Amino acid sequence: MITGSKAMIRDINSHLVLETVLNEGPISRAAISVKLGLTKATISAIVADLIDRQFIREIGSDDTSLGRKPILLEFCKENGHIISIDLGVNTITAFTSDLKGNDCGLKMFPNNYTRDNIISGLIYIINLSLAELPETPFGLAGIAIGVHGVTNGNEILFAPYYDYSGLPFADRLSEHFEVPVFLENEANLSVIGEKCFCYNVPNMIGLSVHSGVGAGIIIDGKLYTGINGNAGEIGHTIINVDGRKCPCGNHGCLEQYASERAILTDYAEIRELEKVTIEEFVAAYNSGDKTASDLVDQFVRYTAVAVNNLLNTFNPDVIVINSGFTINIPELHERIRDQLKNRMNKYCTLVPSGLQDISILLGGVCLIIKDYLGVDYSAPNSDFMMG
Amino acid sequence: MITGSKAMIRDINSHLVLETVLNEGPISRAAISVKLGLTKATISAIVADLIDRQFIREIGSDDTSLGRKPILLEFCKENGHIISIDLGVNTITAFTSDLKGNDCGLKMFPNNYTRDNIISGLIYIINLSLAELPETPFGLAGIAIGVHGVTNGNEILFAPYYDYSGLPFADRLSEHFEVPVFLENEANLSVIGEKCFCYNVPNMIGLSVHSGVGAGIIIDGKLYTGINGNAGEIGHTIINVDGRKCPCGNHGCLEQYASERAILTDYAEIRELEKVTIEEFVAAYNSGDKTASDLVDQFVRYTAVAVNNLLNTFNPDVIVINSGFTINIPELHERIRDQLKNRMNKYCTLVPSGLQDISILLGGVCLIIKDYLGVDYSAPNSDFMMG
DNA sequence: GCAATTAGTTTACTTATTAAACGAATTGAT
DNA sequence: ATCAATTCGTTTAATAAGTAAACTAATTGC
């Protein structure tokens, strides 16, 4: 049972100070005191401890008009590194950053790994990334791995596109690198990334349309994954009760209409092609291909249904859409929004992805920051920051 | 900004002690100390204060085999009263209880009130209920009002079945009776009631099928209502993209298929009747009426779709169904569950309502308990308690 | 050079928890 | 009947964290 104690008070206040310096620094002790409503004495004591532990440091004074100049404090972002990996079906992307998510290197590798060698493959990839990083006081803070499938408690429960279910990724990598390792679903990481770097709101849904369709759910500022990590598996919500058969056993699942897989498969079938990439599809669409245009209509229509259902279910601050289609054909946002103009959706706040193809990687970074510092990161003046 | 302070420590621990006595009492100081992990000295200090404030009292000793007998502490449930009202379209139900939700009287009134006199009507009804209650140290702890419509911050935003939107219920009643007043959507109250009295789990969805279809959402033990109180308005999620037109402007909303209104309207139309009550409909079904049977099939089929979608969206501990159909035709639960046997729903934990037609009223009681005591009530050994 | 102002530290105090000793109450063995 | 063993609850001294207020430090402008 978590009970109140003096240690808890200091813990709460210390994290508040660290969060303030991280997200609003450089900032002075006096300003922190005003912002948090704690006395200057308390702030001074906590700051001394945080400096001692090398989380923050004093930098030059600020320019003020009157009185003694404040000593500015800033977060020591380069004192450690984070590795965030997008374990894609075709490509593995490894992103290294400092403790504020700043780019320290990005590498891409074809994913030729099988169930038998994927873990050693990841160790190899991580070592390659680590090799380029300078020594730091803290070293590696943690490793995040974005999985295209359902995860629960650091285990892959179900992944339709690769055969990695049940593998002890986290345990092995954690033993090997002696740092925390987190496996998390890509839609979940994606929405975390959007929240921390772009849209700082407490309740948001990230609608991720890639091979399948998933939603990352943030409620009260916290990721909600359900009791088995299956929350947000909206690809298998039924939106057409008499519709297309789905491998899951039901009919009319969203995923059969609005996923990349559905659209590209439909296109390939109609055009009697073996396989179509999203780039080829978009090129066809842009050149006025009628089939592609019809399928884009389908995507817009069914994605709007998905957004309608999410709005009426969650009534969130924002819904962010991230998909290859909307990234490559930006006007789709407006078209989806146009289909949502009815009485129940007056509070609709549909927004485009701010991070697009790196949302998963930056979401992984935020997960590690949260684990390592115990603090929610909210990137101030981020390149990606929205309204 | 909420910061850590000494007052916070005592506040946290004091509420934990009160919660323990409320939900697990009668219990001794020693047992509380072990359960919470606080020292006996701390518990003694907090208990002295709670006794002083008349929230708890000492009762006789417990029988133990060895050593000094513990002094049992219990919650003073009869020191105050709660009024919970179900503001139905046809009927207003007023329930009075002690501070643990025990029945102190239930009255029903036809709802003939208009926009102009509903507030004075409620004052009249509440006064009638109060008149029968004995004097208590605390008096009235609060009033909860269950609304069949969307509420946000104690205001009715939208109610399709009566014309009470925007009325200052809470302000007027709060001024008049000088106690806190809460307006809340009926599906939300319903799921709170089920959580506190029947299913003590942190993540649950209450599917309420009455005139419309709504879901009460509890995440991490807390009601989630969205940013405008519109969360859980699943009656307007689209489950049949080319389906029936809905007044909301879309096609194929769940409410057009699986609500009482939809089923009863369909039945009346087919049978060329003016109006059918749910009792008449159930009687027809029980007497083998084919039309009723077909419409029950429709209800089962679409309710299963709703549950499927909720499972894949929330992956909660449990989903509770509460509807006139399932209350009156219990085998429908099994039939709904039978339609859910597919790969994605292996964690399905669909359960019947434990409180049935009083879930809204008891949910209101829990809301007031939470407000008044600052503690989550979890009815121990409740008559309604499930597994 | 001094008043005014703001930043940050020091000091005395308050308060809540803890650990340990202690007193109280009860059982069971001698 | 008495006393050791046991458990319950209180008392006491110590610790730790925040607060308020006084104090020192640093800077500007008159």
Tell me the structural class of chain A: alpha/beta
List the domain count of chain A as a whole number: 3
Fraction of residues in H or I helices of chain A:
25-40%
Number of strands of chain A: 15
Structural commentary:
Chain A has 387 residues and is an alpha/beta fold. Chain A has 13 helices and 15 strands. The first copy, chain A, has 3 domains: 6-75, Winged helix-like DNA-binding domain superfamily/Winged helix DNA-binding domain (Arc Repressor Mutant, subunit A); 80-191 and 360-373, ATPase, nucleotide binding domain (Nucleotidyltransferase, domain 5, 2-Layer Sandwich); 200-353, ATPase, nucleotide binding domain (Nucleotidyltransferase, domain 5). In chain A, strands 6-5-4-7-10 form a 5-stranded mixed β-sheet, with helices on both faces. In chain A, strand 12 and strand 13 (222-224) form a beta hairpin. At the A-B interface, helix 1 and helix 10 of A face helix 1 and helix 10 of B. Chain A binds a DNA duplex (30 and 30 nucleotides) through helix 1, helix 2 and helix 3.
In a few lines, what is going on in this structure?
Chain A has helices at 6-24, 29-36, 40-52, 118-131, 169-177, 186-197, 255-258, 260-270, 278-286, 290-314, 324-328, 332-338, 359-373, and strands at residues 27-28, 56-61, 71-75, 80-87, 91-97, 103-110, 139-147, 150-152, 155-158, 181-185, 204-209, 213-219, 222-224, 318-323, 350-352.
Task: Write out key terms for the chains shown.
DNA-binding; Nucleotidyltransferase, domain 5; globular; 39% helix; alpha/beta; homodimer; 5-stranded mixed β-sheet; Arc Repressor Mutant, subunit A; 387 residues
